[in-house]
Amino acid sequence: MPTAFKLETGVTSDEAPAAPATEPSVLSVVVPFHNEEGNVAILHGRLAAVVATFASPVEFVYVDDGSTDTTGACLERLAASDPRVVVVTLRRNFGQTAALVAGFDLSRGDIVITLDGDLQHAPEDIPALLAAVEAGADVASGWRRDRASIDPWLRTVPSRVANGLIRRVSRVPLRDFGTTFKAYRREVIDDLELHGELHRFIPALAAARGAVITEVPIQSLQRHSGKSHYGIGRTWGVLVDLIVLKFLLSYVGKPLRAFAAVGLPLFAVGFLVALAVTIQFYFFTPQIGYGNLIFAALCMIMGVQFLGMGLVAELGARTYARSGKQRPYAVRRIRGRARGSVKPT
Predict the structure, then answer these.
(1) pLDDT tens digits, one per residue of 49-84
(2) Element (H, E) at 293
(3) What pTM was estimated for this model as a whole?
(4) How do the domains of the chain map onto residue ranges?
(5) Is 127 strand, coil or helix?
């Protein structure tokens, strides 16, 4: 892929630039907002200052994820004053994953940058992420190297544990899966299907499909204004999502194997216990332990149930693969020039 987002180097008037053979590539900056009224204008100003040094066109896709403050009005003012701004207003708060998917669907860029709207990410780090993509990475993921000096240990320690578990499950050696500050090639995000809270696992899902992942150190900053939407309670959600991730990476196309891994051993144990009870009854003593018989029947029944659920899941997976993709969000309105593949619902 050509290096479409190099910084301007100052061409003199005597140098006639060659006419581009194709339409220049577009860089999309996607930012989900939820109740960030104090950060909108400042973040956009810093983003605009950073991309002012780029030679290629840039668009800003701002997703209002059901804000209840004046965030929506702030975004509308930006769209009215800057033609590069696209504002996507969702009907309610669908969550960060859905907001990012909406931004992906409506952005036009060959490379997509994502970051949070709370100003804890420094827009000035965008060139470093782009440099990693231009060097050959499909996904450049930010690494908040100095996060421990910014956030309290109640957030950093669970985050380290979660990152370690994700590394073990996904076998992707990233140190920071949780940050939203990333750069993606368009073909990577178009090839993924995201739902729930899977946005933090995009590198793992992309790596499972052969994408090249790299990690780039970024600044970790204090929130500028507003309240954090993250708390210690999200740790449990990450643990649940890890089970989903393991299933998606290993069994999404063959769910029967996951259920059979539990059902077959259960059935085998029940069958062997029942066989032992039968041999004891016919060849040794007619007195049998009813506890053993109940245990054998229970194991065999549970084994058959797991296999049955696996068959149902297998049929469901095949049906889902043939069905159309349902979007995890609903759009109220779109302001600005968007890709146009999604209409308000």
Answers:
(1) 999 989 889 999 999 999 999 999 999 999 999 999
(2) helix 290-322
(3) 0.71
(4) 27-250, 255-322
(5) helix
